[in-house]
Amino acid sequence: MTRSALLCWAFIGCIFSSLSTSAQDNRYSHVPYSVPSQPWDRDSLGNHRAVINLDNDAAIAHVYLEWRRRDKNPCDKKIIIESATKHQLVKNYLIENCSAEGVDIYFKPLSGEQRYNVYYMPYKNEGRSNYPRGVYLAAADNSNSSWLQGEKPAGIKTNAHVETIQSVDAFNSFYPMEVVATGKEVQGLVKKYGNKGYIIFPESREYPIRMKEHLPMKWILNAPATYLKGTADKGEYFALQLGVYALENLDNAKVVFTDLADDKGNIISKKLISCVNTDGTDYKGYPLKRVVNIEKGKVQPLWCGIDIPVNTKAGIYKGTAIVQADDHTPSTIDLSIEVTNQVAINGGANQPQLQTRLKWLNSTLAQENEVIKPYTPLLVKGNSIDLLGRKITLGKDGLPSMIQTYFKPEMTSIGSKANNLLASAFEFNVKNARDEVLTWKSSGVHFTEKEAGTVSWTATNTAAGMKMNIQASMEFDGHLSYQVQVIALVNQDISDIQLRIPFAKEMAKYMMGLQLKGSKRPATYDWKWDVAHKNQDGAWIGNVNAGLQFSLRDEHYRRPLNTNFYLQQPLLLPTSWGNNNKGGISVAEDDNKVWVNNYSGARTMNAGDTLYYNFDLLITPFHPINTDFQWTHRFYHKYDNIDSIKAKGANVINIHHATPINPWINYPFIEHAKMKAYIDEAHQKGLQVKIYNTVRELSNHAYETFPLRSLNHEIYSHGKGGGYSWLQEHIGEDYIAAWFVPEIKDAAIVNSGMSRWHNYYVEGMNWLVQNVGIDGIYLDDVAFDRVTMKRIKRVLTKDGHPGIIDLHSANQYNKSDGFQNSANLYMEHFPYLNRLWFGEYFDYEHNSPEFFLTEVSGIPFGLMGEMLQDGGNLWRGMVFGMTNRLPWSAEADPRPIWKLWDTFGIVGSEMLGYWLENNPVKTSDPAVLATVYKKKGKALVALASWKEQAVEVSLEIDWKTLGIDPKKASIKALPVKNFQEGRLFKVGETIPVQPARGWLLIIE
Asked: What is the pLDDT of residues 640-684, one digit of tens each?
């Protein structure tokens, strides 16, 4: 195949690029495969059919259909026969000798019809439109064969032939890698080539191996080769695959390579060749080794890559790939790679259909922990560490003895006055059998790393019969990670092991997590582990300008799935903290302290036993809120005409998936040329464009779908399969079906959690920034951790790009999501976000102001947000500086409020929230809250009621702070469509406020 031909390959190859009803070449099958010029109705007839031609005018037609199917129980599925021209249904037919390899079909022809379509996998979609269940129709009962008029099927010779086997479109085709070899063909192959206990099938990158349970007929016709040839450009990552068919159980299968050399002595070092199935780099940047065992009778693709240096001399380079497995004779495959004089663009990454981006799986791009704006380098002074707006002091035991923040209550700036989050130092207590707390003898803190982005330290503590080793680190954004190793030096009974956090009472005003919605912190609270049902391992406690999130873990921590899928991969109960569900967390007040007691209960430890009482902390807020960004960046959440968007007053466009320039969910690479053209036009007209892209699930249109499947659930999660028909027919089983878009038939598969796909994701984002010009991303819930988020922020903001990130979350507080608070779940990402959109299923009508503040607004964390469900509550939203988003929610239009912002001149104003003790405008009713947006000589006041009935309130105004003379002041309510009538209030006049409503008043 020529190199130009390779360029036209899409998902299954360009064999279909010029096909309509004509058949493709017959290299790998004696039955031609094709696609029709126009697709049929797949949702009633299925995705596959055979076109049958009658050879004569016999009264009864007989055709042998060699369909070579990979699906289980094919004979249990219905077939539908219709005439090819008039589409009349053939009612009289009989199936005999049915198997996965083929079937004899007898039917009574329709008058005057010679060509027939036989649909053999019809299905119907059940379930929700976006989460369909493709149910295949059961085989019909054709026991009534009176139409045969006494003839015996065995006596009717074949008098029809298969003209072609068709799929509804090229993407659904089984050809050539899913056209199954027959049992007899496989037996013959094994007899001839199976002397080593396995057979190697070198396969080009153009034909990803798809089946693990079967051999493709292509391999039978070609026979196993002992060589693989290819052509690549300089600088290209050349991917190749070796299919291993195991005739016995194979352990520790791997590939080793020799150098590749040309006839002039130039070499491509074997160090530049690796196999992604066995070797790589994990998402944190650490070396990764994976053991590949292959079960007898299964096929395992081994995907490898040659990272050809850009300065390689053109020529033909030869070497070998040696496939090995324990206790089996190695097999050698000769490699011959012709390197052209051309230089590959972006290492070949611009041609992902050639699997060039598999290199991205092992990327370390943006892994260095460089400080990201607006954060500042960490500064160590003695045992204290300074960071943006915060400071932590360590005790001799290595635990925090003091945590301070310097954010002003307004949350728009950092001051010099310290807010002491703790009333005293952290305590890590081990209690003996007599319930006595052991006394630690500490060696002191030893700093092992003092970098701008990370500070690390260790501390060793000993007590009677016990040792505690601490390894901890702090990062520039306020994240602390503690590894606490508790080692028993003698056999002993322990009544409890605890981590006690003593919050200063005035700073522990609010609480969120552990089965509590964001609210005022209760005086006492008790919680127990229940990982099977609850995605809960910690909480956030704090005030607007000082808070702490704590999460309890052990050395086996695994990030669970989220957003509808928690129950399918829940938290692992920490052996230490959970202690067979004896552990828990209690909250209680004590004088000026609020004690959070993280306990694990009684246990016996033998000498040498080691437990890991690990925990993570996040010190909040992360940075001041940027109110001007909120007022000036007006999001438009829909693909639309750019001039139309600009005319509506929006200036940041969010491009969702399932749109012409971003059709495939979380795989925004296929229509990148259209995307770039759209973004270029937007930039010319002064607008920014962000795209939907995350990693929770992945479109089945990804070029790398089958190479990723070869990694044995490293990338894709285990699951019960099912879902849309394409997934059932081509993925087969053991996956979780995710979001589906009926209009374009995009079917996603759930990812497994933390994996090397995150490396690919970072590289992909970088490619989109550099080659397409995206201005940021829209995250629809998040399935990666803070390590990946930091890398994403770095590549999005590289070279001065804006790198705007906004996060939407559906309310995670439900059974499917493990009753987790969205803000608590995603807090580790908040340091790098620009805006929140919380979100679907959030109730803005029946929740408290504390819920708005902690779970929706983002303000205690340095963020601002917007509302989604049913357009939100505009009156309550403005108390937190929030509107809804254009034009996502029906009948929800923020433009009237935007107009008021501009009329008042809200840009440059000082936001003074209702939570301030010295708020210059208060109301006479504590259930009616007021937030002030102050400018010189005037103020915009947002009023909102949480009272159940209508009320008249008076305003308590600090005129001096506002800088307004009350004798000259006016209070105006400008008319705002769907928000308020225009009205003028006198100073001192009471203001009527309806339940769950309010006002926007201009005082000047």
From this structure: 999 999 999 999 999 999 999 999 999 999 999 999 999 999 999
- HSE-CB for 974 with a 13 A CA cutoff: 16
The pLDDT value recorded for residue 28 is: 58
Q: How far apart (Å, rounded) are the C-alpha atoms in residues 422 and 404?
A: 8
- What's the pLDDT at 10? 33
The rounded distance, in Å, linking the Cα atoms of 443 and 460 is: 6
pTM more than 0.90: yes
Residues in the chain: 1004
pLDDT of residue 662: 98
**Alpha-carbon span 665 to 184, nearest angstrom:** 41
> In 3D, which of 869, 891, 889, 899 has the Cα closest to residue 650?
899
Residues 806 and 868 sit within 8 Å (Cβ to Cβ): no
Separation between Cα atoms, residue 992 and residue 990, nearest integer Å: 7
- Cβ distance 124 to 43 under 8 Å? yes
The CA-based angle 296-299-300, given to 5 degrees, is 110
Residue 143: pLDDT band by 50, 70, 90 thresholds? confident
DSSP string, 213-274: SS-BHHHHHH---SEEEEEEEET-EEEEEEEEEESS-EEEEEEEEPPEE-TTS-EE-GGGEE
Whole-angstrom Cα distance, residue 230 to residue 209? 17
What are 32's two structure tokens? 């031609």
Q: Which two tokens stand for residue 982?
A: 């225009």
Residue 203 to residues 225, 237, 274, 820, Cα–Cα distance (Å): 9, 16, 16, 46
Residue type at position 681: E
All residues at 6 or more sequence positions from 806 whose CB lies less than 8 Å from its CB, including other chains: 635, 654, 690, 776, 778, 779, 833, 834, 835, 836, 837
Contacts of 914 (CB under 8 A, 6+ apart): 849, 879, 922, 929, 930, 931
Whole-number Å distance between alpha carbons of 319 and 658: 45
Above 60 in pLDDT, residue 546?
yes
Q: Which two tokens stand for residue 518?
A: 């964001």
CA distances from 725 to 39, 165, 450, 564, 729 (A): 16, 18, 54, 21, 6
Tell me the C-alpha distance between 279 and 134, whole Å. Answer: 37
* Phi, psi torsion values for 164, nearest 5 degrees: -165, 155
Give yes or no for a contact between 312 and 273, defined as CB atoms under 8 angstroms apart: no
Q: How confident is the model at residue 528 (pLDDT cuts 50, 70, 90)?
A: very high
Beta bridge partners of 838: 809
Q: Which residue has the tokens 């399969």?
A: 721
Task: Please give the single-letter amino acid code of residue 145.
Answer: S
In angstroms, the CA 696 to CA 752 distance is 8
Beta-sheet strand order (sheet of 273-275): 198-203, 237-246, 299-307, 273-275
What is the DSSP annotation of 580-635? TTT-EEEEEEETTEEEEEEE---EEE-TT-EEE-EEEEEEE--S---HHHHHH--E
Angle between helices 672-684 and 757-771 in degrees, nearest 10 = 50
Which class for 37: exposed (0-12), middle (13-18), buried (19 or more C-beta within 10 A)? exposed
Cα(50)–Cα(653) distance, integer angstroms: 46
H-only helix segments in 57-169: none
Residue-level pLDDT at 807: 98
- Give yes or no for a cis peptide into 887 (omega within 30° of 0): yes
pLDDT digits (tens, 9 = 90+) for 571-591: 999 999 999 999 999 999 998
Q: What is the pLDDT of residue 560?
A: 95
Which has the closest alpha carbon to 454: 368, 530, 514, 513?
368
The CA distance from 938 to 928, in Å, is: 21
Q: Which residues have C-beta within 8 Å of that of residue 231, sequence separation ≥ 6?
A: 3, 337, 338, 340
Q: Amino acid identity of 242?
A: L
Question: What is the reported pLDDT for 16?
Answer: 34
